[in-house]
Write a structure and sequence with these properties.
Blueprint lengths: L18 E3 L2 E2 L8 E5 L7 E9 L2 E4 L10 E4 L13 E2 L1 E6 L13 E5 L14 E2 L9 E6 L14 E7 L2 H8 L8 E5 L4 E3 L6 E4 L11 E8 L10 E5 L4 H7 L7
Parallel strand pairs: 10-16
Antiparallel strand pairs: 1-14, 2-12, 3-4, 3-6, 4-5, 5-9, 6-7, 8-9, 11-12, 11-15, 12-13, 13-17, 15-16, 16-17
Protein name: Trypsin alpha-3-like
GO biological process, one term: proteolysis
Organism: Acanthaster planci
């Protein structure tokens, strides 16, 4: 069922994660597929991000399931002004990938079943299609989320976004050195923009509109990990969602399709 709770009753960030460094504030309602995963451990902080891929299902990162997320927020822009009816949902089931490896971050993906259907009649809420192929190097993508603007800098409270470019895996492996990268990951980066602390699970998408929602927007992955926000030449790392089409379909009983 929907869950309405004042922000003052919510508590801080779940765990170190990643959000947007060097981006800009999103135009309100321009990313209606964006989900906010909120825990009881702070004052309304968004612990992780996610994407609404079906009226009953949200995709996020497996590591987010390690915390105590109680609310899935849809149609949010500013985290101080949400909680309207139809925007807060209790989750009923959480399915982290069974082969998620917390050391290597491999298979860092999860499905969350909402307790009831999302209100798709709202102009603030929409589902997003899922890609069935790996994004090619050089492709421009958009990542969006809430969270820190830089290391030791607090979250602004509004949804932000950054345009980033998919990198060649050889370059990404060189940049990350001993940190393992698997065939289930891709890197994306802009010299002045990257993921930072506070929103693992954020959606990274193709086919996006400039300041407006494009119904053809496609989910390419979810934010998984990275180094410190503003370190040059260290791309953010994302889970390739196309590698999990069969798992998404099987886990959701056929609801979620690529």
């Amino acid at each position: 069922m929907k869950f309405f709770i004042p922000l003052a009753c919510l508590l801080a960030v779940l765990m170190p994660a990643y959000a947007i460094y060097g981006g800009e504030e999103s135009v309100p309602n321009s990313r209606p597929y964006q989900a906010a995963l909120i825990s009881p451990w702070g004052r309304g902080s968004v612990a992780c991000g996610g994407a609404l891929v079906h009226k009953r299902w949200v995709v996020s990162a497996a590591k987010c399931a390690l915390g105590n997320v109680i609310i899935i927020g849809l149609g949010y822009h500013h985290t101080s002004y949400h909680g309207l009816p139809g925007q807060q949902y209790i989750w009923s089931d959480w399915y982290p990938h069974p082969k998620y490896n917390s050391y290597t971050n491999d298979n860092d993906i999860a499905l969350i079943r909402l307790g009831e259907d999302a209100d798709l009649s709202s102009p603030k809420i929409a589902t997003i299609s899922i890609s069935n192929s790996r994004p090619s190097p050089g492709t421009n993508l958009l990542v969006s989320g809430w969270g820190a603007l830089d290391y030791n800098v607090g979250a602004p409270g509004t949804l932000r976004e950054a345009d980033v470019k998919v990198q060649f895996m050889d370059d990404c492996r060189k940049a990350h050195g001993s940190s393992p990268l698997t065939d289930n990951m891709f890197c994306a980066y802009n010299p002045d923009k990257n993921i930072c602390y506070s929103d693992t699970g954020d959606p990274i998408v193709s086919g996006y509109g400039d300041g407006t929602h494009n119904p053809g927007t496609t989910l390419e992955g979810v934010a998984s990990w990275g180094w410190s926000c503003s370190i040059q030449n260290h791309p953010g790392v994302y889970t390739i969602i196309a590698n999990y089409c069969d798992w998404l379909s099987q886990t959701s009983g056929g609801d979620v399709q690529c």
